């Protein structure tokens, strides 16, 4: 039986054209981009082209893109870099949302240990943050607001433009975690009005080990890594040239086919939802279904079963569930907990995320396998 991969919110395969762009820089062009001789200049020029491709994806400029090793590093640079600008004054106030990724919330907890005050903004039952709640959380001491543009588990898209207007009116910086959003929906930093925005290549058909942080011109930020001052002093260390060139190629690829791919994935997501609803009927739960959400993401509650056991029963499907049996971690998903779901409901939830190469046949087969597995487990 063939495997059906429905976990594209965790990672995506490297697109063939991206692999092709990377290969010369894994073997032939291995010089670093720092020196004044021809091989180095070739690498530097190609790397700057890649930086421009990432900038074009989100509507920024080359000078506003800092390459990193991951989305998590980019998020840490945005948050810690804001609070470490004055090492003798690591204080102030940070606002994050209850549905942010652990890369945000764990960094926030670390800063709290250092004396930063921390406020969590709640969401509604669809995982959407109320901008008025964000405004109510802002104080005179607030230095940064962090909101995930699109949630990694249920796909809910946040009203970032409204939040950015509030932050600007209060003179507070805004960071958008766009790791899940970039490559799936249109993300334009000028339209969103953000000061900082993080993204990750392997979420949009690029290589792992490559991320980037958009830093709006004039936004003050301290580095996390010190050394020879690469990436305009914000990220020292030899450049991961093949990975970053791959990120640029992936950014260019998804930008050129974004509308078409988003429509195709939304159609397959809705087909999958319809097939599961037909098989399980009114007992099926859809999380975030009433909110604007990512076109590829379906968060489903299969009543009466544990998600990890369901996926073991339907073992031809690769998908994600936050149940402790699957993750090996104690406790339920913070996102699902923020939706006021009980432990049983959270444990029975499975995230199904569609990708470019998912076919209608796979959707039909996956729905049948999941319904059959559910019926077997509850009988």
TrEMBL record:
InterPro entries: Aminotrans_V_dom (IPR000192), Aminotrans_V_PyrdxlP_BS (IPR020578), Cysteine_dSase (IPR016454), PyrdxlP-dep_Trfase (IPR015424), PyrdxlP-dep_Trfase_major (IPR015421), PyrdxlP-dep_Trfase_small (IPR015422)
GO molecular function: cysteine desulfurase activity; iron-sulfur cluster binding; metal ion binding
Catalytic activity annotation: (sulfur carrier)-H + L-cysteine = (sulfur carrier)-SH + L-alanine
Keyword set, alphabetical order: Iron, Iron-sulfur, Metal-binding, Pyridoxal phosphate, Transferase
Start and end residues of each Aminotransferase class V domain: 4-364
EC number: 2.8.1.7
Enzyme class: transferase
Required cofactor(s): pyridoxal 5'-phosphate
Assigned protein family: Belongs to the class-V pyridoxal-phosphate-dependent aminotransferase family. NifS/IscS subfamily.
Protein name (database record): cysteine desulfurase
Gene designation per UniProt: iscS_2
């Amino acid at each position: 039986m063939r495997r059906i991969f429905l976990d594209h919110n965790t990672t995506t395969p490297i697109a063939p054209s991206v692999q092709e762009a990377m290969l010369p820089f894994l073997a032939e062009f291995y010089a670093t981009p720092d020196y004044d001789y021809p091989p180095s200049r070739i690498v530097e020029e190609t790397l700057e082209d890649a930086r421009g491709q990432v900038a074009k994806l989100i509507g920024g400029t080359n000078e506003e893109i800092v390459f990193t090793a991951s989305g998590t590093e980019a998020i840490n640079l945005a948050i810690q870099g804001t609070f470490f600008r004055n090492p003798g004054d690591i204080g102030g106030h940070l606002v994050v949302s209850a549905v942010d990724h652990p890369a945000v919330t764990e960094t926030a907890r670390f800063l709290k240990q250092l004396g930063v005050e921390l406020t969590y903004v709640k969401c509604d039952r669809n995982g959407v943050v109320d901008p008025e709640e964000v405004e109510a959380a802002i104080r005179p001491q607030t230095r940064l607001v962090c909101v995930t543009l699109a949630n990694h588990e249920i796909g809910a898209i946040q009203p970032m433009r409204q939040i950015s207007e509030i932050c600007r009116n209060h003179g507070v910086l805004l960071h958008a975690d766009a790791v899940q959003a970039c490559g799936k929906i249109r993300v334009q930093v000028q339209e969103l009005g953000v000061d900082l925005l993080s993204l990750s290549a392997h979420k949009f058909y690029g290589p792992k080990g490559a991320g980037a942080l958009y830093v709006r011109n004039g936004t003050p930020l301290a580095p996390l890594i010190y050394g020879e001052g690469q990436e305009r002093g914000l990220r020292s260390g030899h450049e991961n040239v093949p990975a970053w060139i791959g990120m640029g190629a992936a950014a260019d690829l998804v930008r050129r086919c974004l509308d078409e791919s988003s429509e195709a994935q939304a159609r397959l997501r809705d087909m999958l939802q319809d097939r599961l609803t037909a098989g399980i009927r009114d007992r099926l739960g859809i999380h975030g279904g009433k909110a604007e959400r990512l076109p590829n993401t379906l968060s489903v509650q299969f009543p009466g079963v544990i998600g990890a056991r369901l996926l073991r029963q339907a073992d031809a499907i690769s998908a994600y569930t936050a149940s402790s049996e699957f993750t090996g971690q104690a406790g339920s998903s913070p996102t699902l907990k923020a939706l006021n779901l009980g432990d049983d409901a959270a444990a029975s939830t499975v995230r199904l995320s569609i990708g470019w190469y998912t076919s209608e046949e796979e959707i039909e087969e996956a729905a049948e396998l999941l319904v059959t597995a559910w019926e077997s487990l509850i009988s």
